[in-house]
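ingest -> fold -> write
write: protein_1
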Amino acid sequence: IPPAARGARVDIPIPASGLGEVAYQDGAETVHLGARSATGQPIDAGRRVRIERVTHRVAIVRPLDGKGSAG
């Protein structure tokens, strides 16, 4: 399965207009990618997200529940 449309976990929080990091499983390997929010909203570490696309090893992600940060 290509990274796009995969579920992933936010390892480093994604700020509203900055770069964080996500990780996903590819078989036995854990793959880490830089990540930006598709919505422009911050996303907290530990949140589950869907990777919409990957460009130059940076994933554009959206929270699975449609929400960003807890606060």
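write: protein_2
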Amino acid sequence: ARIDAPQPGVRRGAGWFEVKVHVDREICAGFGVCLGLCPEVFALHDDGYAIVQVDEVPPEFEQAVRKAVVQ
């Protein structure tokens, strides 16, 4: 998983911005750590790899998602 970079023209601190997350299947090892850290955002697909359940990460889960991304 990785936090998607802001789009061109979007600056941090210049107002509210969306946090989105994407599971990179080439990097994901399929251990489900992200699901354990933030089950509100991640789920397991039938193939055993994580999927993202939300279009935008709710602010209350941003910290847990950021922790999951570096696992």
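write: annotation protein_2
The chain has a mean pLDDT of 83.
Residues 62-69 form the longest helix (8 residues).
pipeline exit 0
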